[in-house]
Amino acid sequence: MMLLTQDHRKRLVANGQNRGDHVPVVKFFNPVGAATWLLSELDSDGDTLFGLADLGFGCAELGSVSLSEIASLTLPFGLSIERDLHFEARFPLTVYADAARLVGRITEDEARLEAAALAQAHE
């Protein structure tokens, strides 16, 4: 599977050129493990992504990852990292990060995300 479409690349690069708290553009996941990435920016090098990474250890972190390294991962049964074809972000990346800190993993639970967004609004 192609991890990024041309549209994804275009949106990620635009976000990377305009730093801010962007809505994640794409979600990658390990189909046989717990790793998940929500990514919102791509540097001009075409490889360095920024977003929220959760490797399944209970502590999701904001930071940079290499697209080529993620794409090169070899998983059991001949599988590879996949893109969630149905992912549609509704909140800025920091809301997902705050909710992940509370839950211990990246979550798409609407109630938890809305609570994190509300908490941010009151800061």
TrEMBL record:
It holds the Pfam family DUF2958. This is DUF2958 domain-containing protein.
